[in-house]
């Protein structure tokens, strides 16, 4: 399969105003294959937005390799930009404009034929509401209008930062249906979120980031619902303290020399969150398959 997005060893440290350094990405890897609705899951501040901004050339990486649609990024971005739709900063629409007028202006500015406006309104389920003012839209409709704006140029890849943020369950389901339809139409989608349930509902694959590093990746069902008996290999610097926290939370924990095996895990992101909140950063969180179990018995 062809990787639509490939990221290897991405590093970014921000300088703070007081002359300090904040490591946002610490050797991050991610692969998104063609046709996936790929979730990018991690707690607030784990590096999701920095990754997306770096990928789109808005932030300069310190190190690492990236490619989009087989072309090196950010170098080839001018070439591939017409094939990529992205919403990384939530767009501010004029409330007094209708959805249709908003898209018409964007189409004109982007050199896109105006016929696309009706097509994308239909695609995101706003065709009947296109002549209402944006200020009368619900949050979910505004989010879908944002997706419509990114679809104007018929991208092959759509990158959405927190598209379900603030939506109620019905809005999240609509977003899921929309993502599935886009995927069925051959568009690869990358969706970031800090909420596990959103990713579980919307995506088929997931990459989990914690403190600037990938801690798990794979099909949503395997990674988020656990695999086999819900056993995970967890690597963290302070194994004793992590084992205490997870045991106190009621999970069966087995200690190994360099990692823990935690069973009955229904929600692996919860582990990263619980340990992260206590200042313990997970460097690996892998569902144990029959093959990986063998290497875990040391
Ligand atoms: N321009 C910046 N200057 C300094 N630090 C930054 C900057 N941008 C991000 N950071 C820091 O980098 C880390 C990662 O932030 P990032 O916004 O990528 O996380 P995130 O996973 O997208 O979180 P959220 O869900 O809250 O947006 C955080 O510690 C953040 O404070």
From TrEMBL:
<dbReference type="InterPro" id="IPR017871">
    <property type="entry name" value="ABC_transporter-like_CS"/>
</dbReference>
<protein>
    <submittedName>
        <fullName>ABC transporter ATP-binding protein</fullName>
    </submittedName>
</protein>
<keyword id="KW-0547">Nucleotide-binding</keyword>
<comment type="similarity">
    <text>Belongs to the ABC transporter superfamily.</text>
</comment>
<feature type="domain" description="ABC transporter">
    <location>
        <begin position="5"/>
        <end position="236"/>
    </location>
</feature>
<dbReference type="GO" id="GO:0016887">
    <property type="term" value="F:ATP hydrolysis activity"/>
</dbReference>
<dbReference type="InterPro" id="IPR027417">
    <property type="entry name" value="P-loop_NTPase"/>
</dbReference>
<keyword id="KW-0067">ATP-binding</keyword>
<dbReference type="InterPro" id="IPR003439">
    <property type="entry name" value="ABC_transporter-like_ATP-bd"/>
</dbReference>
<dbReference type="InterPro" id="IPR003593">
    <property type="entry name" value="AAA+_ATPase"/>
</dbReference>
<keyword id="KW-0813">Transport</keyword>
<dbReference type="Pfam" id="PF00005">
    <property type="entry name" value="ABC_tran"/>
</dbReference>
<dbReference type="GO" id="GO:0005524">
    <property type="term" value="F:ATP binding"/>
</dbReference>
